[in-house]
Amino acid sequence: MMMIAQGFAPAARRVAVALAVLVVAAPLAACSDEGQLVLKTATGEHAFHVEIVDTPETRAKGLMFREELADDAGMLFDFKQEREVSFWMSNTLIPLDMIFVGADGVVKTIHVNARPQDLTSIPSQVPVQFVLEIPGGRSEEIGLQPGDVMEHERVGAPID
C-alpha cells in the first residue's frame, strides 16, 4: 500500500507545479495581451482594454447593439494599412468617440460623441490604419489631442 501512495506522490507534485506555473503565468500573459492599449496625452498615460477587430466581418459589426462600455474599454479597428475610412453609428446604442490613428501610432483626428443610431458618415479625413472607439466624451476627459500617441503591439508591427 505504501508503494502505491509513493508512486502517486511525484505525479501529484507535477500537477501542483503545473498549476503553480499557470497561476504565475496567467497574469504575465495578460500583460502582453493584445487587448491592452495606452493613450499618451499631456495629462498622462491612459490605459484601455480593447477588443481587436481586423476582418471585414468583425469591422462591420463593431460595437453595434452594445448597451454599455466601461470607461477603460474600447474597440480597436485595424485596417492593416493606411487608407481613408469612414464610420457611422447604425445600430450603435451608445455615444462613442472615434480616434483615427496612423500606422505610426500618432492620433490624426478625433470625432467626439458620435450620436447613437446616426447614419451620418464620420470620415477619418486622412489616411489611417487604426480607429479606436471609446465611450463618448472620454477623449476630452483625458485631454486627447491630434498628435498624441497610441501605444499598442500592432502599431509598427509588420503587416501580414
What is the chain-wise order of helices and strands? HEEHEEEEEEHE
Arithmetic mean pLDDT: 84
Q: Kindly estimate the percentage of residues that lie in beta strands according to DSSP.
A: 35-45%
The rounded Rg comes to 21 Å
How would you explain this protein's 3D organization?
The chain has 3 helices and 9 strands; from the N terminus they run H-E-E-H-E-E-E-E-E-E-H-E. The chain is α+β, with helices and mostly antiparallel strands and 160 residues long. The protein folds into 2 domains: 32 residues; 117 residues, Jelly Rolls, CATH 2.60.120. Strand 5 and strand 6 form a beta hairpin. The longest helix has 30 residues. The protein is globular.
